[in-house]
Design a protein that fits this description.
This protein has 289 residues and is an alpha/beta fold. It has a single domain (3-287), classed as Rossmann fold, CATH 3.40.50. It has helices at 3-10, 19-29, 55-72, 88-91, 96-106, 123-137, 149-162, 177-180, 189-208, 223-235, 244-287, and strands at residues 47-51, 77-81, 114-117, 142-147, 167-172. It has a 5-stranded parallel beta sheet with strand order 3-2-1-4-5, sandwiched between helices. Helix 7 links the parallel strand 4 (142-147) and strand 5. Helix 3 packs parallel to helix 11 (244-287). It is globular, with a radius of gyration of 19 Å. The termini are far apart.
């Protein structure tokens, strides 16, 4: 165990001026690894899924779809998933699924290969909507999730519990915590506070829903990770289960981020446009040739 991890365990106050260290530890430990063969080829699938409130998922899914077409000579159907969340109803002009679909179109995915699934408002409902769409569309059972690192663990545990017959593999974006904090996904707002709120809830939600909505975490939670999660959960409450007092504590945190969205909306749009053009350049110069 590192000296830093020991400090986290011994005294939370040691970390009081460095939330980023605790957040980075959770981001790197409470996740899964890619298993779709993207580094050595790419598994043939029937669907590629981009999901949640982060357009990074759609950018990655689009690049994977173009690689799939090059390797297997066919575009998979793109499922763009997500309703309106606590903050995404303010960061996006429409539902998460429709926002992701628009990004996929901008990255050259044919409109006829895109399906929007935007009725779900939580991970469990999203998985159910995906599975129902897979059964209804009838194109096969092989699914590739293109997801962020912070979502990956909860997503896989939920899928394994609620759609165990799904033949699923995962591509997890290999981003550092700092790189994952973008303006357009809202995670850089408030000095990355929106990211801290999300990371603070991962362990609590996985353990609270184990055996009901999700499969249990398949590995041991080390003391340093648990201490970091407890520390963040004590400070960042927006996505934590809350009683009345804790709801009152969360109100100023929500308002701070809401006004940060209003102030930085143009910056968020500009950064997304830059990343779309960067993805298109990558597709044209690296994947297609």
């Amino acid at each position: 165990m590192s000296e830093l991890s020991e400090c986290i365990i011994i005294n939370y106050k040691v970390m009081s001026k460095n939330d980023q260290v605790c957040a980075t530890l959770i981001h790197e430990k409470l996740c899964i690894t890619s298993d779709c063969g993207a580094g050595t080829g790419l598994k043939k699938v029937d669907y590629i899924i981009c999901i949640d409130d982060d357009a990074t998922s759609a950018l990655c899914a689009s690049a994977l779809a173009w690689r799939h077409k090059k390797v297997h000579k066919i575009f998979p159907t793109m499922l763009c998933v997500g309703g309106k969340g606590l903050m995404s109803r303010w960061t996006h002009k429409t539902t998460e699924g429709r926002h992701l679909a628009e990004v996929c179109k901008r990255c050259g995915i044919p409109k006829g290969r895109i399906v929007v699934l935007d009725k779900g408002t939580n991970t469990g409902a999203n998985i159910q909507e995906i599975w129902n769409a897979v059964l209804k569309l009838g194109e096969g059972n092989r699914v590739l999730f293109a997801c962020t690192k912070r979502l990956s663990l909860r997503l896989k545990l939920t899928q394994q519990k609620q759609a165990p017959k799904m033949d699923a593999c995962y591509y997890v974006l290999p981003e550092s915590m700092d790189a994952a904090c973008k303006w357009y996904n809202g995670k850089r707002l408030g000095g990355c506070e929106m990211m801290y709120h999300e990371l603070a809830s991962i362990l609590d939600r996985c353990e609270a829903y184990a055996g009901t909505f999700q499969e249990p975490i398949p590995f041991e939670i080390t003391p340093d990770v648990r201490a970091a999660a407890d520390y963040l959960a004590s400070r960042y409450r927006l996505k934590m289960p809350r009683n009345l007092l804790q709801n009152l504590r969360a109100i100023p945190q929500f308002l701070k981020l809401y006004f940060a969205i209003i102030r930085n909306r143009q910056l968020m749009e500009d950064e997304l446009e830059t990343d779309i053009q960067r993805t298109l350049t990558h597709i044209e110069t690296v994947i297609k040739p």
